Amino acid sequence: MPEPILELKDVRTHFPLHRGFLFKRPAGTVKAVDGVSLTLRSGEVLGLVGESGCGKSTLARTIMQLVPTTGGAVVLEGRNLTQGSAEAVRRTRRDMQMVFQDPYASLNPRMTVFATLAEPLLVHRVCPPREVADRVARLMETVGLAPRFMQKYPHEFSGGQRQRIAIARALALEPKVIIADEPVSALDVSIQAQILNLLAGLGRKMNLSLIFIAHDLSVVKHISDRVAVMYLGKIVELGSAVDVIERPRHPYTRALVSAIPVPNPDIERTRQRIVLPGDPPSPINPPVGCAFHPRCPYAQEKCKAAVPPLIPDGPTREVACVRLGEI
Amino acid sequence: MSLLTVKDLRTYFHTRNGVYRAVDGVDFHLERGETLGIVGESGSGKSVTCYSLMGLVPQPPGRIESGTAFFDGTDLLHCTPREARAIRGRRVAMIFQDPMTSLNPYLRISEQLIEPLLIHERISRAAALKRGLEALEAVGINDAARRIHYYPHEFSGGMRQRVMIAMALITKPELLIADEPTTALDVTVQAQILDLIRKMQRDLGMAVIFITHDLGVVSGLCDRVLVMYAGRIVESSDTRTLFHEPKHPYTRALQRSIPSLQPKGSELFTIRGLPPDVSKPIAGCSFAPRCDFAVDRCRAVDPPLAEWKPGHLQACLRVQAGEI
């Protein structure tokens, strides 16, 4: 089994809430990420799924140290980032890069492709300035863009091409880990497939480890080796992609999988679907015990008693549900 | 007679950078109680088609260049504003993709919800409010009596979409046009909203035009499907046929590029290139530059939308010639 490259140990990211304007009083906390432990192995693609507000983007930002951690440790190749100095964190970011959802918002509209891709090279002094143009051209080729577009601005590109630029920017520093936060959600199906192929191909070629965040389970299943399902700041199921999505065990994963419409009218019209009532609860005041119990069709008294831990279920899977053996 | 018959609809946008032929000759019809899906990528003209019917195309820069759209005997494109008002919002209602931007953030839900009733029916405020309350309950909003006085920001995304649906259906329309109503929502909430649309359709017996880019959603909801590409319909048939025997190369490619239908880990099938720029003249078939089956003829002859089998139309010269 390959070495772990990134380890999260009981990571917590809480945001304090205040009330009042001049004399601010604390008014609770949003527990956006609340005790997440994960390992990312070298060369692995880990999918992270969950509904909006479940904390998957905050987790990504926590790993990148773009938001301060409240507790726990983010360990990249043996270095604990939560304890490092700002300078150390900045150096570590060379090894970890991020691709964001909206390629319309994540690229500076006043910077040409060249300026966008050259900036990380110059900031981190990757190569002598005279070689920068060469490197940029090679980066563009890697992501399938013609280098002759180097002096163009983001608005001259389509959504898919912009996402390629964003991926090239993430690759500029030859990172070991890339965190892609919903990189294809804003794209059309045909373009989505192009970007997924690109990411999967790059991962293999450059031995990148990838954390792939999405809410589209079919996309996640396609690209990931393992999948983690988040609900309200916690991981409720973690295992191999095929296991989790084809044979989900946690009631929440089951509902999530059954909510995906199947593009086949014969199956779609006859299959049993679990339609969850209501919306995800607020992370400001989460339900006691298992956070999913108010929406869970299998909930019992004991689900309210304590937060269920992730327990192994077979060799390749962990599930956080106290009724696992019974349902 | 069909509830809605659209013939040769063309909606162009006249901008500084040229004329964008957003909808370029669209014909379709819709029966009472039927659910019609319109699928296509962004820019294929699926939304503009429906905006044209509802009179929501900003003019200028938009202009409806030609066409008729008869709704129960009235041409929506050429009727007087007075006739249009009697239909739009009462007999034909529309819901949109983003419930946050389509509700007025300054008005309480109650005000927005009963506005169509106050406009279209001779009804007192109190009676309208009572109907509003019933409408909210019908779309599954708990504690409606209290929540009807909330502002939109006090609702979650799924709840706002429910409010939008309640508002659209309060006048018991005969046709509901839903423009990607679940695209901005989580899958679990999407499942709730699709169930709700199905239930309301059964209760009211209305027809639905459902615009989406998600073939999965179409497969569960629609009786018939139109596939649009670059402002035209390239294929139309009943849902089952479209999924099992797609004919047009674009429909086939679209279906093949869905990740869930492909073996895991394999290279995903992609449609090469980009959709065409509809402000430039396109010679022949608009899909030809991206099509694996294109031959010289495809780049020269404009393919008509022709019947392949009864009820199954498609616009590919090579399919029509029996070559592919």
Which structural class matches the secondary elements of chain A? alpha/beta
Q: Give the helices and strands of chain B as they follow along the chain.
A: EEEHEEHEHHHHHEHEHEEHHEEH
Oligomer: heterodimer
Number of helices of chain A: 10
Strand order of the largest sheet of chain B: 6-7-8-3-9-10-12-11
Unreliable stretches covering 5 or more consecutive residues of chain A: none
The total strand number of chain A stands at 12
Report the span from N to C terminus of chain A.
Answer: 32 Å
Strand share of the residues of chain A? 15-25%
Instruction: Count every beta strand of chain B, where a strand is a DSSP E run of 2 or more residues.
Output: 12
Mean pLDDT of chain A: 88
Question: Over the alpha carbons, how many angstroms does the gyration radius of chain B reach?
Answer: 21 Å
Instruction: Give the helix proportion of chain A (percent range).
Output: 25-40%
Written as H for each helix and E for each strand, in order along the chain, the element string of chain A is EEEHEEHEHHHEHEHEEHHHEE
Shape of chain A: globular
Structure notes:
The complex is a heterodimer of chains A (327) and B (324). Chain A has helices at residues 56-63, 86-92, 113-123, 132-142, 159-171, 189-206, 217-223, 241-246, 251-258, 265-268, and strands spanning 4-19, 25-41, 45-49, 71-76, 79-80, 96-99, 177-181, 209-213, 226-231, 234-240, 311-312, 317-319. With 327 residues, chain A is of the alpha/beta class. In chain A, strands 6-7-8-3-9-10-12-11 form an eight-stranded mixed sheet, sandwiched between helices. Chain A is globular. Chain B is α/β, with parallel strands linked by helices and 324 residues long. Chain B has helices at residues 46-54, 81-87, 99-102, 109-120, 125-138, 144-147, 157-169, 187-204, 215-221, 239-244, 249-256, 317-320; strands spanning 4-15, 18-30, 35-39, 62-71, 74-75, 92-95, 175-179, 207-212, 224-229, 232-238, 306-309, 312-314. Chain B is globular, with a radius of gyration of 21 Å. Classes of the chains: A alpha/beta (327), B alpha/beta (324). Chain A binds chain B through residues 51-52, 158, 160, 188-194, 196-197, 200-201, 215-219, 221-222, 241-242, 255-256, 258-266, 268-269, 273, 275-277, 279, and chain B through 41-42, 156-159, 186-192, 194-195, 213-220, 239-240, 243, 253-255, 257-262, 264-265, 267-271, 274.
